[in-house]
């Protein structure tokens, strides 16, 4: 970024802080960063950390920013407020060679610096995939190749791909890494066919020390592309180079992909990333809050978010950004009521209907009693305590009223449910084993 633009930006920020006030400026414009400047048309990007913040700043301060830039530095004729996700990123097809900075193309893309192994939060849902990714990226030799990582949207596949790229280049400074989406593979291959440059296309990919292919499901049904993809895979693996492929589903569930490709994929290590459980979601929130230093979130709110926003890690991150933005905008304290108000639509979309029947089944299996004991009249401790636990969980995890819960437990009165809930709450504070049982049951039911 040219020095005049950086100097103008500092002057503009000082003026905005004075005109808008410290609280408004710190809440909305302090996180803004300079992005790309296009001298030909005078367009300058102002990059915000989230889409929500970009939309808000654009609608509330867009004209003010444009006027400020035109006044301080007339060569800037247009200001575009964009989210970090929309800022110039690695092109779908990119070639990264670890060469001195002075020799590197200034426009060459890089892996996202946020996506490293150090910032990847581990849990049972992703432990195998993350360990395999780190091994492939850092070990001198590996016993598997390729590595195939699959999982639903927003579970961390892209994070791991970028982390592999970072770590591999740190260990192999002269390495050549190629990263591309399967869709871009298809587009580039078709273009090479039209331009009679298939040799150049093949050389670019097959000479890579590490080849990263994202979203392989997009070549389903594309026969000529699959043919080239198969030979590229073979060339990389046979030459002892490393290959990582991601998909939204397991190899056996990929329709429209040639059997020999699926067979080749299965020769390596297939690692899935499952839906994050409560513990992983909780730890991810803690990690993300470190990047939001102005956001103070008490434990009950973190617990609430970890239990209620379950669809994907990406949506959880978006929820955190939105909460932080609204809190800074309104000056309100972040509590559960505030979060319910701000995330009303998100919470409705993530609402999982847990039934009392599910709870009774899970608790009966956990304590190894017959499910019929949940509604029986027996008062023996070995069935009474699990029954109380099931009543407690029914109160915590379902919207059912106390009389409704009592009726589902053998027609018991609502006062019996109240007693059970209070008893379990009391015991959890003194009985570590019972508390662990309830945490485990909650995770199983919500997962």
Write the SSE topology.
Elements: H1 3-20, H2 22-29, E1 33-38, E2 43-48, H3 51-72, E3 78-83, E4 93-97, H4 127-138, E5 147-151, H5 157-171, E6 176-181, H6 182-194, H7 198-206, E7 210-214, H8 223-238, E8 242-247, H9 259-267, E9 269-273, H10 278-289, H11 299-308, H12 313-330, H13 336-342, H14 344-350, H15 356-367, H16 381-397, H17 402-408, H18 414-430, H19 432-446
Parallel strand pairs: 2-3, 5-8, 5-9, 6-7, 7-8
Antiparallel strand pairs: 1-2, 4-6
Helix pairs in contact: 1-2, 1-3, 4-5, 6-7, 10-11, 10-12, 15-16, 15-19, 16-18, 17-18, 18-19
Distance between termini? 47 Å
Beta-strand portion reads 5-15%
If you average the pLDDT, what whole number results?
85
State the strand order across the main sheet: 4-6-7-8-5-9
What overall geometry do the principal axes of the alpha carbons give?
Answer: flat
Helix content: 40-55%
Q: Name the helix and strand elements from N-terminus to C-terminus, one letter apiece.
A: HHEEHEEHEHEHHEHEHEHHHHHHHHHH
The low-pLDDT segments are 89-109
């Amino acid at each position: 970024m040219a020095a005049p633009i950086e100097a103008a930006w500092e002057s503009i920020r000082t003026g905005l802080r004075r005109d808008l006030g410290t609280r408004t400026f710190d809440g909305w414009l302090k996180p803004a960063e300079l992005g790309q400047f296009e001298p030909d048309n005078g367009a300058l990007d102002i990059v915000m950390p989230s889409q929500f913040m970009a939309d808000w700043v654009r609608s509330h301060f867009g004209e003010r920013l444009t006027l400020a830039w035109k006044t301080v530095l007339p060569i800037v004729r247009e200001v575009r407020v964009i989210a970090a996700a929309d800022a110039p990123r690695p092109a779908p097809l990119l070639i990264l060679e670890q060469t001195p900075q002075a020799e590197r193309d200034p426009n060459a893309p890089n892996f996202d610096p946020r996506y490293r192994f150090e910032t990847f939060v581990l849990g049972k849902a992703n432990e195998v995939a993350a360990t395999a990714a780190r091994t492939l990226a850092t070990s001198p030799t590996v016993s598997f190749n390729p590595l195939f990582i699959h999982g639903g949207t927003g579970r961390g596949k892209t994070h791991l791909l970028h982390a592999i790229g970072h770590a591999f280049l740190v260990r192999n400074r002269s390495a050549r890494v190629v990263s591309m989406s399967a869709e871009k593979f298809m587009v580039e291959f078709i273009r090479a066919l039209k331009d009679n440059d298939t040799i150049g296309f093949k050389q670019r990919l097959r000479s890579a020390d590490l080849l990263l292919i994202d979203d392989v499901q997009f070549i389903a049904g594309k026969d000529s592309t699959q043919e080239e993809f198969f030979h590229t895979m073979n060339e990389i693996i046979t030459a002892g180079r490393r290959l990582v492929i991601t998909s939204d589903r397991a190899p056996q569930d990929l329709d429209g992909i040639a059997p020999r490709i699926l067979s080749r994929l299965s020769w390596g290590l297939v690692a899935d990333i499952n839906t994050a459980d409560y513990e992983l979601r909780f730890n991810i929130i803690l990690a993300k809050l470190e990047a939001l230093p102005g956001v103070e979130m008490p434990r009950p709110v973190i617990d609430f978010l970890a239990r209620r926003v379950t669809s994907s890690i990406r949506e959880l991150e978006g929820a955190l950004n939105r909460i932080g933005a609204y809190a800074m905008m309104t000056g309100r304290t972040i509590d559960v009521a505030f979060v319910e108000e701000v995330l009303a639509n998100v919470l409705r979309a993530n609402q999982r209907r847990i039934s009392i029947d599910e709870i009774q089944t899970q608790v009966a299996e956990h304590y190894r009693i017959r499910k019929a004991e949940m509604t029986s009249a027996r008062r023996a401790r070995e069935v009474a305590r699990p029954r109380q636990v099931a009543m407690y969980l029914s109160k915590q995890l379902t919207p059912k009223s106390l009389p409704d819960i009592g009726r589902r437990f053998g027609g018991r009165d609502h006062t019996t449910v109240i007693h059970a809930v209070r008893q379990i709450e009391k015991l959890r504070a003194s009985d570590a084993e019972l508390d662990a049982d309830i945490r485990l049951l909650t995770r199983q039911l919500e997962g």
